[in-house]
Amino acid sequence: YLGKLAAMLAAVPQLKYLHKIAVSELLLRSSKHIFTSYMQGTELMSLSAAISHFLNCLLSSSSAVHPQLNLEELQSKTAKRRNKRKGRNNGPLQSEVEWASLTPKSLWQQIKADLKAYYDWETPYPESFDATIDHFNLQKVSLLRSFCIKTGIQILLREYNFENKNRATFFEEDILNIFPVVKHINPRASDAYNFYTTGQGKIQQGYLKDGYELISEALNLLNNVYGAMHPEIAQCLRMLARLNYIMGDHGEALATQQKAVLMSERVNGIDHPYTITEYIHLALYSFANGQVSVSL
């Protein structure tokens, strides 16, 4: 129902930001569907080249997107690998290098067809992928991050120039790894969760010390259940630091928030919204402790 939801959101100007999120999710999900079938016919030796070529077709503004290796070279390498493995001379299979024939235009046609078939949604700017994301004011770097998370691609950390029309954005060396993405439900420490929510209730009622004790107990339980590193532990640390700041213990607030920042970097990632929030709180507590240069 995501396509229907996006159409309903488009009719409400006050929900423009939510409409952008829905459109972004539609484009990424359809791109992931195409990417999954695209990877089925890719040889392991050509994995990096195939992924970089797909990303160029999807996000690059270059007018001429070509794989780093030409078709004849890819076929030659595929034939040599298979001949060495089988010990007999067989011509290269065309299906093994089909990925090299993908173009931005053909990829966009597949995405539009997938959007219509899966979600019954059509973009108001069907000319190209770039026209669509420009219309909805989407950022390519955000789309890249979300797509990599959805598909399990790990890329090199560097500045990517998406607007260069004469040079490809991604290269074979930019693809560092690819790992499976498994759908699962995270187990929850129910006792710790109950302590945490009860502590939040006490804080809202104005009983800060009681809330602090309950959340501290929740933190102990989370450490026993999850171990040293977990997103919920970082959340508890952030709440404790905030309570320390409100109660006037700025030094303890700073020390606790530093732990929350380090943990969020490791369990959520340095570019996660929660990590950015942790840094904002750390800047506030650093300023409260007189560390003006550090807070800036």
UniProtKB/TrEMBL annotation:
CLU central domain mapped to chain residues: 1-162
A GO CC term attached to the entry: cytoplasm
GO molecular function: mRNA binding
CDD domains linked to this entry: CLU-central (cd15466)
Database matches in SUPFAM superfamilies: TPR-like (SSF48452)
Protein name: CLU central domain-containing protein
PANTHER family given in the database record: CLUSTERED MITOCHONDRIA PROTEIN HOMOLOG (PTHR12601:SF6), EUKARYOTIC TRANSLATION INITIATION FACTOR 3 SUBUNIT EIF-3 (PTHR12601)
GO process terms (BP): intracellular distribution of mitochondria
Origin species: Bracon brevicornis
